[in-house]
Amino acid sequence: MKSNQKPVKRVKTSPKNTALSAKNQAVRTTQNVRAVAAQIILQVLDQGKSLSALIPEMQQQVKPQDLPLLQEICFGVCRVLVRLEWIIRLLVDKPLKGKTRIVHCLLLVGLYQLLYMRVPEHAALNETVNAIKDLKSENFRALTNGVLRRFLREQENVLAVVDKHWQTNHPDWFVNKLKKAYPNWRDIIDANNQKPPMWIRVNQQHCTTENYRQLLLAESEINAFSAENPHALRLENPSAVQNLPHFAEGWVTVQDVHAQWSGLLLEPQNGELILDACAAPGGKTTHILEQAPAAKVVALDVEESRLKRVHENLARLKQKAVVICGDATQPDSWLPQAAEQIVGRKSAVQFDRILLDAPCSATGVIRRHPDIKWLRQESDIEQLVALQRQILTALWTTLKPNGVLLYATCSVLPEENSRQIAQFLQDHPDAKLEPLPFSQDKSAVGFQFLPQENGGDGFYYAKLRKLA
């Protein structure tokens, strides 16, 4: 967004004046962090854009020290949106629509600070009202000030009305699907509404999990807890990666504990040809290579821009893989290129193992990406199921006899998971379902992890072997 600061008067160029010009330019492009947060939330709610795309794009508009505040507000508002919307409906007589929607979003920002953050009330209120200037909505300064001050005066009565009935803070279509699938659906809702814990994966080539836990405590005074997953540690409190000993050298990677099972269940072996389909951002690719450094790994993703992260992760861990941009539904379009880089010629190749982290609704990682609740639509699910089936069918032809395909999603919806695999097994007599170590139910089709407070995210796994 263009700045509303007055242009700097031109002066003759000199080292001193150049420095002043740079400083003035920084002043012109920096906005009130609450104003930027309101703009981001507006684009999430009204334009269907994601926080993971918007925050990196707009973070240059705030001071570096304000970035954590920007993230906390944006993620927090999306997490408790329904409750905040109820409050606004009680306090604002006429809905703010059209061009005034930005003021509505600013009220969301103000209320979130007053309810959920440790920002002093006067600072939260004054800075939110001052953000009106950067949003070019000066006519609504009095309204914004009045609504927030009224909330502070009447908070107890307002919340008594708003919280009279339990709120899911989830869209109704998703809640209805959970009700049909899980008797403990309320536990899933509650877990989704919590802030996520921070998990790290310890690179066993450098250090054992227990030794790294002790290193964390000794060098960084960070307490961590182990889990059933042998490579995982949960930090007592989230921390910047710069505080993790030897992070830059690849000793650890930030990855959810349930996501970490993908590399272990695949059981990669040195010398094998392995495909990591839908590989970006590369966490699973690097885990495969940590366990089998001499494996020949192809990291495939359909989005070129996302492959940059794969290259960065491989470089940090000093690993090598063949990284290819291609459509997993069309193996013939990229398989010759992969073969040329692996065996030196364009020829037909088949994989010993395939990890398919399939495109999905991401309904298992809502607590990490709360905007998913408002971006995802019920109509998306049928399209995703069809795409998953396409990819599964296409990649199955590239798997060697007796090879293994590990199907994974970060969804909790049965149609993307157990029902998807049950249908695939019915359609492919040469596919056999392999048992999983943590599954006690022999009749179950794969295994569904559900999000848990202080635990992992929602993930699904099914391990398929191709019969000779």
Automatic annotation (TrEMBL):
What subcellular locations does the record give?
Cytoplasm
Q: Which SUPFAM superfamilies match?
A: NusB-like (SSF48013), S-adenosyl-L-methionine-dependent methyltransferases (SSF53335)
Q: Which PROSITE patterns match?
A: NOL1_NOP2_SUN, SAM_MT_RSMB_NOP
Which Pfam family, an example, fits this chain? Answer: RsmF-B_ferredox
Q: Which reaction does it catalyse?
A: cytidine(967) in 16S rRNA + S-adenosyl-L-methionine = 5-methylcytidine(967) in 16S rRNA + S-adenosyl-L-homocysteine + H(+)
The UniProt record lists the keyword Nucleotidyltransferase? no
Main localization of the protein?
Answer: cytoplasm
Family annotation (Gene3D superfamilies): Helix hairpin bin (1.10.287.730), NusB-like (1.10.940.10), Sun protein, domain 3 (3.30.70.1170), Vaccinia Virus protein VP39 (3.40.50.150)
Protein keywords? Cytoplasm, Methyltransferase, RNA-binding, rRNA processing, S-adenosyl-L-methionine, Transferase
SAM-dependent MTase RsmB/NOP-type domain boundaries:
188-467
Q: Which GO terms describe its molecular function?
A: methyltransferase activity
Region spans: Disordered: 1-20
Q: Which family does it belong to?
A: Belongs to the class I-like SAM-binding methyltransferase superfamily. RsmB/NOP family.
Spell out the PANTHER family in the cross-references: NOL1_NOP2_SUN FAMILY PROTEIN _ ANTITERMINATION NUSB DOMAIN-CONTAINING PROTEIN, NOP2 YEAST -RELATED NOL1/NOP2/FMU SUN DOMAIN-CONTAINING
- What protein does this entry describe? 16S rRNA (cytosine(967)-C(5))-methyltransferase
Q: Which organism is it from?
A: Actinobacillus porcinus
The gene for this chain is rsmB
